[in-house]
Amino acid sequence: MSVLSTRHKLEILADAAKYDASCASSGTKKRDSLSGRKGGLGSTEGMGICHAYAPDGRCISLLKILLTNSCIFDCHYCINRRSSDVRRARFTVWEVVDLTLNFYRRNYIEGLFLSSGIIRSPDYTMEQLVGVARALREEHDFRGYIHLKTIPDADPELTHQAGLYADRLSINVELPTEEGLKRLAPEKDEKRIEGAMKELRTSIEDMGDARKRYRHAPRFAPAGQSTQMIVGADGADDRAILRRARSLYDRHALRRVYYSAFSPIPSPSAVLPLKRPPLLREHRLYQSDWMMRFYGFSVSDIEQATDPETGHLPLDIDPKLAWALRHRGIFPMDVNRAPREMLLRVPGLGVKAVDRILASRRQRRLRLDDVARLTSSIAKLRPFLIASDWRPLHLIDKVDLKRRLTPPPTQFELFT
Protein backbone atom coordinates (compact mmCIF):
# COMPACT_ATOMS: atom_id res chain seq x y z
CA MET A 1 0.00 0.00 0.00
CA SER A 2 1.49 3.34 -1.04
CA VAL A 3 2.01 6.06 1.55
CA LEU A 4 -0.96 8.43 1.51
CA SER A 5 -1.46 11.75 3.19
CA THR A 6 -4.23 12.09 5.75
CA ARG A 7 -6.19 14.18 3.27
CA HIS A 8 -6.01 11.49 0.58
CA LYS A 9 -7.02 8.86 3.12
CA LEU A 10 -9.97 11.01 4.12
CA GLU A 11 -11.10 11.31 0.50
CA ILE A 12 -11.00 7.54 0.03
CA LEU A 13 -12.45 6.43 3.36
CA ALA A 14 -15.17 9.08 3.61
CA ASP A 15 -16.36 8.13 0.13
CA ALA A 16 -16.25 4.42 1.04
CA ALA A 17 -18.47 5.08 4.08
CA LYS A 18 -21.32 6.58 2.04
CA TYR A 19 -22.94 3.18 1.50
CA ASP A 20 -23.79 2.83 5.19
CA ALA A 21 -27.06 4.62 5.92
CA SER A 22 -27.34 3.92 9.65
CA CYS A 23 -25.79 7.10 10.99
CA ALA A 24 -28.65 9.05 12.57
CA SER A 25 -27.79 10.31 16.05
CA SER A 26 -31.19 10.36 17.71
CA GLY A 27 -31.90 9.07 21.18
CA THR A 28 -28.66 9.63 23.04
CA LYS A 29 -28.11 11.42 26.34
CA LYS A 30 -27.65 15.19 26.24
CA ARG A 31 -24.05 16.16 27.02
CA ASP A 32 -21.94 19.24 26.57
CA SER A 33 -18.45 20.41 27.45
CA LEU A 34 -19.66 22.25 30.56
CA SER A 35 -20.82 19.01 32.20
CA GLY A 36 -17.46 17.26 31.78
CA ARG A 37 -14.07 17.74 33.31
CA LYS A 38 -12.39 21.10 32.96
CA GLY A 39 -11.40 21.53 29.35
CA GLY A 40 -13.91 18.96 28.04
CA LEU A 41 -14.70 19.05 24.36
CA GLY A 42 -17.76 18.43 22.20
CA SER A 43 -21.52 18.25 22.47
CA THR A 44 -24.39 16.04 21.38
CA GLU A 45 -26.59 19.10 20.88
CA GLY A 46 -26.71 22.10 18.59
CA MET A 47 -26.85 22.82 14.88
CA GLY A 48 -24.32 21.72 12.27
CA ILE A 49 -23.69 21.14 8.57
CA CYS A 50 -24.29 17.40 8.49
CA HIS A 51 -26.47 14.70 7.03
CA ALA A 52 -28.11 13.04 10.04
CA TYR A 53 -31.31 14.20 11.71
CA ALA A 54 -32.78 13.68 15.16
CA PRO A 55 -36.53 12.94 15.56
CA ASP A 56 -37.22 16.59 16.39
CA GLY A 57 -35.64 17.69 13.10
CA ARG A 58 -32.30 18.91 14.45
CA CYS A 59 -29.42 18.44 12.05
CA ILE A 60 -26.53 16.50 13.61
CA SER A 61 -23.16 16.70 11.92
CA LEU A 62 -21.12 13.51 11.94
CA LEU A 63 -17.69 12.74 10.64
CA LYS A 64 -18.60 9.55 8.79
CA ILE A 65 -15.59 7.47 7.78
CA LEU A 66 -14.16 3.97 7.64
CA LEU A 67 -11.09 3.04 9.61
CA THR A 68 -10.06 1.13 6.48
CA ASN A 69 -11.68 -0.04 3.27
CA SER A 70 -9.49 -3.14 3.14
CA CYS A 71 -11.37 -6.31 4.01
CA ILE A 72 -10.70 -10.03 4.31
CA PHE A 73 -14.33 -10.81 3.38
CA ASP A 74 -15.62 -11.05 -0.19
CA CYS A 75 -19.29 -10.05 0.02
CA HIS A 76 -20.63 -9.70 -3.52
CA TYR A 77 -22.57 -6.47 -2.90
CA CYS A 78 -19.74 -4.59 -1.14
CA ILE A 79 -17.46 -2.22 -3.02
CA ASN A 80 -14.74 -2.87 -0.42
CA ARG A 81 -14.81 -6.65 -0.79
CA ARG A 82 -11.54 -8.53 -1.00
CA SER A 83 -11.71 -9.02 -4.79
CA SER A 84 -12.78 -5.45 -5.58
CA ASP A 85 -10.38 -3.32 -7.60
CA VAL A 86 -10.54 -0.14 -5.52
CA ARG A 87 -7.84 2.04 -4.05
CA ARG A 88 -7.21 1.02 -0.46
CA ALA A 89 -6.41 3.20 2.52
CA ARG A 90 -6.20 2.86 6.28
CA PHE A 91 -6.27 5.30 9.16
CA THR A 92 -4.37 4.81 12.37
CA VAL A 93 -6.26 5.22 15.61
CA TRP A 94 -4.60 8.56 16.26
CA GLU A 95 -5.36 9.89 12.80
CA VAL A 96 -9.08 9.31 13.39
CA VAL A 97 -8.85 10.93 16.83
CA ASP A 98 -7.04 13.98 15.44
CA LEU A 99 -9.46 14.33 12.53
CA THR A 100 -12.46 14.18 14.87
CA LEU A 101 -11.05 16.80 17.24
CA ASN A 102 -9.88 19.13 14.46
CA PHE A 103 -13.18 18.92 12.59
CA TYR A 104 -15.06 19.60 15.81
CA ARG A 105 -12.93 22.65 16.66
CA ARG A 106 -13.75 24.05 13.23
CA ASN A 107 -17.47 23.53 13.93
CA TYR A 108 -17.78 21.09 11.03
CA ILE A 109 -19.09 18.17 13.07
CA GLU A 110 -20.72 17.26 16.35
CA GLY A 111 -19.86 13.60 16.44
CA LEU A 112 -18.26 10.57 14.82
CA PHE A 113 -19.67 7.62 12.89
CA LEU A 114 -16.94 5.02 12.53
CA SER A 115 -17.09 1.74 10.67
CA SER A 116 -14.45 -0.44 9.06
CA GLY A 117 -13.62 -3.28 6.75
CA ILE A 118 -12.29 -6.38 8.49
CA ILE A 119 -8.49 -6.45 8.61
CA ARG A 120 -6.36 -9.27 10.05
CA SER A 121 -9.25 -10.56 12.18
CA PRO A 122 -12.58 -9.36 13.63
CA ASP A 123 -10.98 -9.00 17.09
CA TYR A 124 -8.07 -6.90 15.81
CA THR A 125 -10.41 -4.59 13.88
CA MET A 126 -12.76 -4.20 16.83
CA GLU A 127 -9.82 -3.34 19.09
CA GLN A 128 -8.92 -0.50 16.73
CA LEU A 129 -12.48 0.87 16.73
CA VAL A 130 -12.66 0.71 20.53
CA GLY A 131 -9.25 2.38 20.71
CA VAL A 132 -10.56 5.42 18.85
CA ALA A 133 -13.59 5.80 21.14
CA ARG A 134 -11.51 5.22 24.28
CA ALA A 135 -8.95 7.88 23.31
CA LEU A 136 -11.65 10.42 22.51
CA ARG A 137 -13.51 9.87 25.78
CA GLU A 138 -10.71 9.26 28.27
CA GLU A 139 -7.79 11.28 26.92
CA HIS A 140 -9.66 14.23 25.37
CA ASP A 141 -12.95 14.15 27.33
CA PHE A 142 -14.86 14.34 24.06
CA ARG A 143 -18.52 14.92 24.91
CA GLY A 144 -19.94 14.60 21.41
CA TYR A 145 -21.83 11.73 19.82
CA ILE A 146 -20.03 8.51 18.87
CA HIS A 147 -21.57 5.72 16.80
CA LEU A 148 -19.49 2.57 16.30
CA LYS A 149 -20.28 -0.16 13.80
CA THR A 150 -19.51 -3.38 15.64
CA ILE A 151 -18.40 -6.73 14.23
CA PRO A 152 -20.55 -9.81 15.01
CA ASP A 153 -17.57 -12.20 15.02
CA ALA A 154 -15.54 -10.13 17.51
CA ASP A 155 -15.08 -11.14 21.14
CA PRO A 156 -18.17 -10.04 23.16
CA GLU A 157 -15.86 -8.34 25.68
CA LEU A 158 -14.70 -5.96 22.95
CA THR A 159 -18.30 -5.13 22.10
CA HIS A 160 -18.94 -4.49 25.79
CA GLN A 161 -16.00 -2.08 25.90
CA ALA A 162 -17.35 -0.32 22.81
CA GLY A 163 -20.69 0.21 24.55
CA LEU A 164 -18.98 1.96 27.48
CA TYR A 165 -17.61 4.65 25.14
CA ALA A 166 -20.10 4.88 22.26
CA ASP A 167 -23.58 6.38 22.30
CA ARG A 168 -24.90 3.91 19.77
CA LEU A 169 -23.71 0.56 18.46
CA SER A 170 -24.96 -1.10 15.32
CA ILE A 171 -24.62 -4.51 13.74
CA ASN A 172 -25.72 -4.81 10.13
CA VAL A 173 -27.90 -7.79 9.21
CA GLU A 174 -27.00 -6.84 5.60
CA LEU A 175 -29.78 -8.72 3.77
CA PRO A 176 -33.40 -9.46 4.74
CA THR A 177 -33.30 -13.23 4.15
CA GLU A 178 -30.97 -16.02 5.19
CA GLU A 179 -30.93 -17.31 1.61
CA GLY A 180 -29.79 -13.93 0.31
CA LEU A 181 -27.03 -13.72 2.91
CA LYS A 182 -25.74 -17.20 2.04
CA ARG A 183 -25.69 -16.38 -1.67
CA LEU A 184 -24.21 -12.87 -1.54
CA ALA A 185 -22.16 -12.96 1.68
CA PRO A 186 -21.24 -16.63 2.27
CA GLU A 187 -18.58 -15.74 4.87
CA LYS A 188 -21.21 -14.16 7.13
CA ASP A 189 -23.64 -16.14 9.26
CA GLU A 190 -27.13 -15.01 10.20
CA LYS A 191 -27.07 -16.88 13.52
CA ARG A 192 -23.83 -15.17 14.59
CA ILE A 193 -25.22 -11.78 13.61
CA GLU A 194 -28.46 -12.29 15.54
CA GLY A 195 -26.54 -13.79 18.46
CA ALA A 196 -24.39 -10.66 18.68
CA MET A 197 -27.49 -8.46 18.54
CA LYS A 198 -29.09 -10.49 21.33
CA GLU A 199 -25.99 -10.15 23.54
CA LEU A 200 -25.93 -6.42 22.87
CA ARG A 201 -29.58 -6.04 23.87
CA THR A 202 -28.91 -7.97 27.10
CA SER A 203 -25.95 -5.72 27.94
CA ILE A 204 -27.97 -2.56 27.26
CA GLU A 205 -30.81 -3.75 29.49
CA ASP A 206 -28.53 -5.00 32.28
CA MET A 207 -26.55 -1.76 32.38
CA GLY A 208 -29.79 0.21 32.25
CA ASP A 209 -31.07 -1.67 35.31
CA ALA A 210 -27.76 -1.04 37.08
CA ARG A 211 -28.12 2.71 36.39
CA LYS A 212 -31.52 2.67 38.11
CA ARG A 213 -30.06 1.09 41.25
CA TYR A 214 -26.65 2.73 41.34
CA ARG A 215 -26.30 6.34 40.33
CA HIS A 216 -22.64 6.03 39.36
CA ALA A 217 -22.98 2.85 37.29
CA PRO A 218 -21.43 3.41 33.85
CA ARG A 219 -23.63 4.19 30.89
CA PHE A 220 -23.76 1.64 28.11
CA ALA A 221 -24.77 2.62 24.56
CA PRO A 222 -27.46 5.05 25.79
CA ALA A 223 -28.77 5.53 22.23
CA GLY A 224 -29.29 1.78 21.84
CA GLN A 225 -28.51 -0.32 18.80
CA SER A 226 -29.54 -0.16 15.15
CA THR A 227 -29.06 -2.16 11.98
CA GLN A 228 -29.19 -1.83 8.22
CA MET A 229 -30.63 -3.91 5.39
CA ILE A 230 -29.71 -3.64 1.73
CA VAL A 231 -32.76 -3.38 -0.51
CA GLY A 232 -32.78 -4.78 -4.03
CA ALA A 233 -29.55 -6.80 -4.05
CA ASP A 234 -31.43 -10.07 -3.71
CA GLY A 235 -34.94 -11.16 -4.63
CA ALA A 236 -36.63 -10.29 -1.32
CA ASP A 237 -39.85 -8.33 -1.76
CA ASP A 238 -41.12 -5.56 0.50
CA ARG A 239 -43.25 -7.96 2.53
CA ALA A 240 -40.20 -10.06 3.43
CA ILE A 241 -38.19 -6.95 4.31
CA LEU A 242 -40.87 -5.55 6.61
CA ARG A 243 -41.42 -8.92 8.31
CA ARG A 244 -37.71 -9.13 9.06
CA ALA A 245 -37.66 -5.56 10.34
CA ARG A 246 -40.60 -6.19 12.67
CA SER A 247 -38.93 -9.35 13.94
CA LEU A 248 -35.70 -7.46 14.66
CA TYR A 249 -37.56 -4.70 16.51
CA ASP A 250 -39.38 -7.23 18.67
CA ARG A 251 -36.46 -9.55 19.47
CA HIS A 252 -33.64 -7.07 19.89
CA ALA A 253 -35.38 -3.81 20.89
CA LEU A 254 -33.70 -1.91 18.06
CA ARG A 255 -33.95 1.87 17.90
CA ARG A 256 -33.91 1.88 14.11
CA VAL A 257 -33.77 -0.36 11.09
CA TYR A 258 -32.23 1.47 8.15
CA TYR A 259 -32.92 0.58 4.53
CA SER A 260 -30.26 1.17 1.90
CA ALA A 261 -31.15 0.78 -1.77
CA PHE A 262 -28.60 -1.39 -3.52
CA SER A 263 -26.25 0.67 -5.65
CA PRO A 264 -24.32 -0.96 -8.52
CA ILE A 265 -20.60 -0.95 -7.84
CA PRO A 266 -17.52 -0.98 -10.10
CA SER A 267 -16.52 -4.44 -11.37
CA PRO A 268 -19.74 -6.01 -10.01
CA SER A 269 -20.21 -9.68 -9.31
CA ALA A 270 -22.22 -11.64 -11.88
CA VAL A 271 -24.83 -12.59 -9.26
CA LEU A 272 -25.85 -8.97 -8.64
CA PRO A 273 -28.68 -7.17 -10.47
CA LEU A 274 -27.57 -4.88 -13.27
CA LYS A 275 -29.41 -1.80 -12.00
CA ARG A 276 -30.39 -0.36 -8.67
CA PRO A 277 -34.00 -0.45 -7.40
CA PRO A 278 -35.97 2.82 -7.48
CA LEU A 279 -34.97 5.12 -4.64
CA LEU A 280 -38.68 5.62 -4.08
CA ARG A 281 -38.87 1.99 -2.96
CA GLU A 282 -36.45 2.77 -0.13
CA HIS A 283 -38.62 5.76 0.78
CA ARG A 284 -41.81 3.64 0.90
CA LEU A 285 -40.07 1.17 3.23
CA TYR A 286 -39.14 4.01 5.57
CA GLN A 287 -42.75 5.23 5.52
CA SER A 288 -43.98 1.71 6.33
CA ASP A 289 -41.41 1.38 9.10
CA TRP A 290 -42.70 4.65 10.57
CA MET A 291 -46.27 3.33 10.40
CA MET A 292 -45.28 0.24 12.39
CA ARG A 293 -43.37 2.20 15.00
CA PHE A 294 -45.61 5.23 15.57
CA TYR A 295 -49.02 4.68 13.92
CA GLY A 296 -50.06 1.31 15.33
CA PHE A 297 -49.96 -0.60 12.04
CA SER A 298 -48.98 -4.26 12.15
CA VAL A 299 -46.93 -6.02 9.49
CA SER A 300 -50.05 -7.76 8.24
CA ASP A 301 -51.78 -4.37 7.89
CA ILE A 302 -48.99 -3.06 5.69
CA GLU A 303 -48.85 -6.29 3.69
CA GLN A 304 -52.43 -5.56 2.67
CA ALA A 305 -51.14 -2.40 0.98
CA THR A 306 -48.65 -4.33 -1.19
CA ASP A 307 -49.26 -5.68 -4.67
CA PRO A 308 -50.57 -9.27 -4.31
CA GLU A 309 -48.46 -10.46 -7.24
CA THR A 310 -45.12 -8.73 -6.68
CA GLY A 311 -45.21 -8.26 -2.90
CA HIS A 312 -43.98 -4.68 -3.32
CA LEU A 313 -45.46 -1.46 -2.00
CA PRO A 314 -46.90 0.90 -4.63
CA LEU A 315 -44.53 3.63 -5.74
CA ASP A 316 -47.14 6.13 -6.95
CA ILE A 317 -48.88 6.53 -3.57
CA ASP A 318 -47.74 6.21 0.04
CA PRO A 319 -48.48 2.95 1.92
CA LYS A 320 -50.95 4.57 4.31
CA LEU A 321 -53.11 5.77 1.44
CA ALA A 322 -52.77 2.38 -0.28
CA TRP A 323 -54.03 0.68 2.91
CA ALA A 324 -56.95 3.11 3.25
CA LEU A 325 -58.06 2.57 -0.35
CA ARG A 326 -58.29 -1.16 0.35
CA HIS A 327 -60.31 -0.57 3.53
CA ARG A 328 -62.85 1.98 2.40
CA GLY A 329 -65.49 0.36 4.58
CA ILE A 330 -64.15 1.99 7.76
CA PHE A 331 -64.19 5.45 6.17
CA PRO A 332 -65.23 8.24 6.35
CA MET A 333 -64.26 8.72 9.98
CA ASP A 334 -65.83 11.30 12.27
CA VAL A 335 -63.08 13.68 13.35
CA ASN A 336 -65.10 14.67 16.41
CA ARG A 337 -65.68 11.11 17.70
CA ALA A 338 -63.08 8.70 16.34
CA PRO A 339 -60.46 7.45 18.84
CA ARG A 340 -56.81 8.32 18.43
CA GLU A 341 -55.78 4.92 17.05
CA MET A 342 -58.32 5.22 14.22
CA LEU A 343 -57.50 8.83 13.37
CA LEU A 344 -53.86 7.76 12.95
CA ARG A 345 -55.03 5.55 10.08
CA VAL A 346 -56.48 8.46 8.10
CA PRO A 347 -54.28 9.34 5.11
CA GLY A 348 -52.73 12.77 5.55
CA LEU A 349 -53.00 12.85 9.35
CA GLY A 350 -49.72 12.62 11.25
CA VAL A 351 -49.13 12.06 14.94
CA LYS A 352 -48.84 15.77 15.75
CA ALA A 353 -51.98 16.62 13.74
CA VAL A 354 -53.99 13.91 15.51
CA ASP A 355 -52.84 15.14 18.92
CA ARG A 356 -53.87 18.70 17.96
CA ILE A 357 -57.28 17.45 16.83
CA LEU A 358 -57.83 15.58 20.10
CA ALA A 359 -56.88 18.66 22.12
CA SER A 360 -59.04 21.01 20.04
CA ARG A 361 -62.18 18.88 19.99
CA ARG A 362 -62.32 19.00 23.80
CA GLN A 363 -63.19 22.68 23.43
CA ARG A 364 -65.53 22.62 20.42
CA ARG A 365 -66.85 20.54 17.56
CA LEU A 366 -64.44 20.77 14.65
CA ARG A 367 -65.37 22.01 11.20
CA LEU A 368 -63.43 21.14 8.06
CA ASP A 369 -61.71 24.54 8.16
CA ASP A 370 -60.58 23.80 11.72
CA VAL A 371 -59.02 20.53 10.59
CA ALA A 372 -57.33 22.33 7.70
CA ARG A 373 -55.62 24.68 10.14
CA LEU A 374 -54.31 21.75 12.16
CA THR A 375 -52.84 19.82 9.21
CA SER A 376 -50.52 20.56 6.32
CA SER A 377 -52.90 19.47 3.55
CA ILE A 378 -56.66 19.04 3.56
CA ALA A 379 -56.99 17.70 0.00
CA LYS A 380 -56.06 14.12 0.87
CA LEU A 381 -58.28 14.17 3.98
CA ARG A 382 -61.59 15.16 2.39
CA PRO A 383 -62.75 11.68 1.27
CA PHE A 384 -61.84 10.07 4.60
CA LEU A 385 -63.22 12.49 7.22
CA ILE A 386 -66.55 13.66 8.56
CA ALA A 387 -66.62 17.08 10.27
CA SER A 388 -69.46 19.06 11.77
CA ASP A 389 -70.01 20.83 8.43
CA TRP A 390 -68.67 18.20 6.02
CA ARG A 391 -69.69 14.80 4.76
CA PRO A 392 -67.96 13.38 1.70
CA LEU A 393 -71.21 11.72 0.48
CA HIS A 394 -70.18 9.29 -2.27
CA LEU A 395 -66.64 10.60 -2.63
CA ILE A 396 -65.12 7.66 -0.76
CA ASP A 397 -66.90 5.22 -3.12
CA LYS A 398 -65.65 6.75 -6.35
CA VAL A 399 -63.89 4.26 -8.59
CA ASP A 400 -61.27 6.82 -9.60
CA LEU A 401 -60.48 7.96 -6.06
CA LYS A 402 -56.90 6.70 -6.30
CA ARG A 403 -56.37 8.71 -9.48
CA ARG A 404 -57.79 11.81 -7.81
CA LEU A 405 -55.41 11.46 -4.86
CA THR A 406 -52.28 10.43 -6.78
CA PRO A 407 -49.92 13.39 -7.27
CA PRO A 408 -49.55 14.20 -10.97
CA PRO A 409 -46.15 13.49 -12.51
CA THR A 410 -43.90 16.53 -12.74
CA GLN A 411 -41.08 17.38 -15.09
CA PHE A 412 -37.95 18.39 -13.21
CA GLU A 413 -36.20 21.49 -14.41
CA LEU A 414 -32.47 21.54 -15.07
CA PHE A 415 -32.04 25.11 -13.82
CA THR A 416 -34.20 26.35 -10.96
UniProtKB/TrEMBL annotation:
Q: Which cofactor does it need?
A: [4Fe-4S] cluster
Q: Which Pfam families match?
A: Radical_SAM (PF04055)
- Domain of life per record: Bacteria
InterPro entries hit by this protein? Aldolase_TIM, DNA_rSAM_put, Elp3/MiaA/NifB-like_rSAM, Endo/Exo/Phosphatase_dom_1, rSAM, rSAM_sf, RuvA_2-like
Keywords, comma-separated and alphabetical: Iron, Iron-sulfur, Metal-binding, S-adenosyl-L-methionine
Among CDD domains, the record links this protein to: Radical_SAM (cd01335)
Chain ranges of the Elp3/MiaA/NifB-like radical SAM core domain = 61-288
| PANTHER family attached to this UniProt entry | ENDONUCLEASE/EXONUCLEASE/PHOSPHATASE FAMILY DOMAIN-CONTAINING PROTEIN 1, TYPE II SECRETION SYSTEM PROTEIN K
What NCBIfam families does this protein's entry cite? rSAM_link_UDG
Protein name as catalogued: DNA modification/repair radical SAM protein
Specify the species.
Sphingobium tyrosinilyticum
